Amino acid sequence: MAAKLLLCVSNDQATVAVWRRRRLLSCTRFENNEEGWTAFGNFLRGAHGLPVHIIVDTVDEDFRFETLPHIRGRDRTEMVGRKLKQLYRATPYYSCALQERESGKRRDDRYLFAAFTNPDLLIPWLRAIEAASLPVSGIYPLALVSASLVERLKLKHRNLLIISKNSAGLRQTFFKDLKFRISRLTPLRGTTDVADQHYADEIGNTRMYLDALTVTHVDDTLELVILDQDGSLSGLPSAIMRGRPNMHCQYIDINGIHARFGIPIADLEASTDTLHLYLLGEQAPTLNLAPSYLTSTYQRFAAGRWVYAASGATLVGAVIWSGVNVFQAMGIDQNALITQRQTQDYQAKYQQVTAQFPEVPTSADNLRHTVEIAEQIRAGLRSPEAMFSIISHALDVCPEIQLQRLEWHYRDSETTNAGANPATAPAAAPGNLLQTGILQGEVTRFGGNYRAAMNAINNFLQLIAQDNAVAEVKVLKLPLDVRSNSGLNGTTMAIPGKETAQFEIAVIFKSGV
Amino acid sequence: MQLKPKDLAAMKMPLLALAIAVAASFAMLEFSSNQRARSEKQHRDQLTALQEARIRYQRSGDERETVTHYLQTYRQLEKIGFVGAEQRLNWVESLRAANAQAGLSGVNYQLTAQEPYPYVAKDNPVGDRVRQSRMRLSFGVLHEGELTRLFRALSAQQQGLFALNSCSLDRAGRQGAPLPGQANLTAECELSWLTIDPKGEKS
What we know:
The complex is a heterodimer of chains A (about 525) and B (about 200).
Chain A: E1 4-10, E2 13-20, E3 23-31, H1 34-44, E4 52-57, E5 61-68, H2 73-87, E6 94-101, E7 109-116, H3 123-131, E8 136-141, H4 142-145, H5 148-152, E9 159-165, E10 170-176, E11 179-186, H6 192-212, E12 222-227, H7 236-243, E13 247-252, H8 254-261, H9 265-270, H10 274-282, H11 292-354, H12 364-380, H13 385-397, E14 401-412, H14 413-418, E15 433-443, H15 450-465, E16 470-477, E17 502-509
Parallel strand pairs in A: 1-4, 4-8, 9-12, 12-13
Antiparallel strand pairs in A: 1-2, 2-3, 5-7, 6-7, 9-10, 10-11, 14-15, 15-17, 16-17
Chain B: H1 5-58, H2 60-80, H3 88-102, E1 107-111, E2 115-116, E3 130-141, H4 144-156, E4 161-170, E5 185-196
Antiparallel strand pairs in B: 1-3, 2-3, 3-5, 4-5
């Protein structure tokens, strides 16, 4: 928890303490006079940058409950603001808090309005704080600081009156159904016996006041919790009990306070305001009476502190995350090192084994692949011999056919069809290569008899096509183009011995031949 | 809430601290994340290397068998000039010798620059190392049998591995029965001299 300065101001004096690590330090009292203000100013010089939280314990205070229509947002802010200004014209120290919604049909809102009606009380102390450039966090009535006692002491009573004796006097704060209702301050009396009776009478008056307001019923039992820091109220319970029977007292002395709150005895003995300073240190009330111009420095201070905290959190988060990364990286590096050693072991073993191998010019895989590819190429080699043999056989049977030109190609089927350059063709598997042949020839002893010539050519074609190695024989050109989809011209005035019956055929071999 | 110059001035140092913290955090995270990523990559590489080394060691028996089985054939391929750089001088000399053996009057040749050989199995990892130099031959022959004889003689020279791509025989206007002792046919052929780069350097 961040350090802060806690100040309790009353009509006669002010008590200040530094709150650090849930402990009150340097608890010091200053008189409400010129000398005290100067000493307070000197004290503040040692409190660099600490925000100041102020409790005011004075009779010049006002608490009142107001019921207002239930509205929200800006309208509510404006309505409440108008009401505050109307109620407290003479002081800047006022505020309000929404307490509850009423159970009636209108479901109106019930507000607690609070103010210090004597602003002059705070002026010298705030001046010293301003001179020391310390931010004011808030100004709170002591009665509302007491509200946290209900929770801390686990009090469950419907009608509860907490009584404490502070430097300003006897403070009585009444809680109805565990909610703050009324608070009164009675100035101190000198002699203990007289004071006890006086305080008991004051408490009796408070009870009658509550009954008169019908906040409590005459027959209701009022639970009194008396917090006696300096032991001066030890006779108060018996004095109270003598007056009214339906009041029950719970007396907590300095040891009880020490046991319940963990506040060191020495701190409690240092000032009667210690308990409330401690309560403020732990948790500030929501109702803050400090005007915004007074807390603006603190707002900036708090925002700056949040930003610093965010910076720190960011940095810490990054350090932790980076630490985890580095730690994991170290673990991974360690594993990599182990893996590297294992790899080296295997490599050494492999070297030992391969040292016994015959000397090889390349890796075993390269060796195998090179030999396999050479075998593949060799298995795919072809020559025109097969085509020569088939054509020779056909020519032997057809002596009237004479060849002029013969071409043989061995290339992939796509190139064969497209007529592309095989060197620029895409890679083809050796199994896709085909043998093809182009034969250009003529029919001898033609004599203008196209029918006989065509028969001779067809016969020649059939002889070639009959071979098992041949897949297809295509006619590319005939002596006479008899197809219906093409034109035809010629002459019947044939000159004997000059006519030719030329043809051209393509022979396509089966795949794999 | 409206921000005033005083508010901004008061927030200058905290915001500066925040900026520094964010920058430092980012730098730290960047550095440590990179460090971790680098370590992870190194570890992955090491694991891959380990896997390879382990498999290689486990297969060393098979490797020995492979070497024993293929080495002799490989040496033979080296000897005939299939493995290694082109032996153009050997090719020309073997062509001259084949020409003499086939009893031809002469063979004109034209050799192209080396280029990739497309007709190899794609699944073979060294397939892309096979290169061809195409040689175009033109010569006169009495009959087709001389053409066959020439290529048989060329193959018998064992001075390289070649693949015949095409051949053509043209009577070139000559009519009637073939004349003995004369080149009746003009032959033109194309073949590919094949080599493989043993180191796999791509041209």
